């Protein structure tokens, strides 16, 4: 199996919103805001080739589905569908993808499912041969959003996914489309039913648990700076719950040597977890990109 970090369309969002109750004096040390207080964000996907014999894409980024006025409002930088170009650089097209795993359906994680905006045309779904894997609790949220996060969803997307006949709604640890190659756990702090996918490592620890895998952190941990447990986003539904979930997630990743894959970090795609003498989590062995990297490397 080979892993690729797949760059999608980039985005600029308000730094204060991205760092919640952390003061600008703190987060501006980590990332430089522009004149409008916005910071640069990646929308990175993870491609796994020959994962149980399948080509699997974890998320699709924000894509290029917004009309020009909304693209500017939401800080989407590129007009073209960058994800498709990045897939081509890895030697695949969207038609080659067997499974798309969606942690949740907020537009900056699922918008890449759609074709680029075109005048006079409605949303059109790409990935014609893929099974779409979505968590059950979040699927209900996407169908009936709360007023607080309604703007984060693409209204037409649930119907488009259902119409394919290739939608798999997952409730437990495993999906039929992936067997036991990918294990899921769930988080409610950012959005109900956020599905966290772990590509299961090739080894087992002394307790028989999978060891050495890769976890797609989605919006539980958008990047390295959010590994620090108290740091949350203003977009999170329940910051205190997210902090508790994040701490448990990081403790488990550290114990089982599960590496973290970040979607929104502009400079880091993959890292290992560390914890210092004061108990503060951090990262090491940071990689900016993955190009046909073996899981066990």
Distinct helical segment count: 8
The amount of beta strand, in percent, is 25-35%
Report the CATH C-level class.
Alpha Beta
Q: Supply the number of structural domains.
A: 1
**Corresponding CATH architecture:** 4-Layer Sandwich
CATH superfamily: Ribonuclease Z/Hydroxyacylglutathione hydrolase-like
Q: Tell me the major beta sheet.
A: 7 strands, mixed
CATH topology: Metallo-beta-lactamase, Chain A
Briefly note the structural class of the backbone: alpha+beta
Silhouette: globular
* N-to-C series of helices and strands: EEHHEEEHHEHEHHEEEEEEHEEEE
How are the strands ordered across the major sheet? 8-7-6-5-4-1-17
What value does the average pLDDT take? 96
Tell me the distance between the termini.
Answer: 11 Å
Structural notes for this entry:
The protein is α+β, with helices and mostly antiparallel strands. The chain has helices at residues 15-18, 24-27, 68-73, 82-89, 107-110, 136-143, 157-164, 239-256; strands spanning 2-7, 11-14, 38-41, 44-51, 54-58, 99-102, 131-135, 167-170, 182-187, 194-199, 203-204, 210-211, 214-216, 259-261, 270-275, 281-287, 293-294.
Q: Which structural traits does this protein have?
A:
single chain, 297 residues, alpha+beta, Metallo-beta-lactamase, Chain A, 7-stranded mixed sheet
């Amino acid at each position: 199996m080979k892993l690729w970090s797949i760059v999608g369309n980039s985005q600029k969002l308000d730094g204060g919103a991205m760092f919640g109750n952390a003061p600008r004096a703190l987060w501006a040390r980590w990332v430089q805001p522009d004149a409008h207080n916005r910071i640069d964000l990646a929308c990175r996907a993870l491609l796994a080739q020959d994962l149980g014999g399948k080509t699997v894409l974890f998320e699709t980024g924000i894509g290029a589905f917004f009309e020009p006025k909304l693209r500017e409002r939401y800080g989407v930088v590129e007009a073209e569908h960058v994800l498709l170009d990045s897939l081509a650089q890895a030697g695949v097209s969207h038609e080659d993808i067997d499974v798309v795993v969606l942690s949740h359906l907020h537009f900056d994680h699922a918008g890449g499912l759609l074709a680029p905006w075109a005048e006079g045309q409605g949303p059109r779904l790409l990935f014609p041969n893929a099974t779409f894997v979505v968590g059950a609790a979040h699927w209900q949220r996407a169908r009936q959003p709360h007023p607080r996060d309604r703007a984060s969803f693409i209204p037409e997307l649930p119907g488009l996914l259902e119409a394919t006949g290739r939608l798999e709604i997952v409730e437990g640890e495993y999906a039929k489309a992936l067997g036991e190659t990918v294990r899921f756990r769930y988080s409610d702090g950012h959005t109900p039913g956020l599905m966290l996918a772990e590509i299961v490592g090739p080894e087992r620890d002394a307790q028989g648990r999978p060891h050495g895998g890769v976890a797609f952190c989605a919006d539980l941990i958008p990047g390295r700076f959010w590994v620090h447990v108290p740091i949350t986003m203003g977009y999170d539904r329940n910051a205190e719950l997210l902090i508790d979930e994040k701490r448990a997630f990081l403790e488990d990743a550290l114990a089982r040597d599960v590496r973290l894959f970040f979607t929104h970090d502009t400079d880091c795609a993959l890292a290992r977890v560390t914890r210092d003498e004061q108990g503060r989590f951090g990262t090491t062995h940071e990689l900016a990109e993955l190009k046909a990297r073996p899981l066990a490397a």
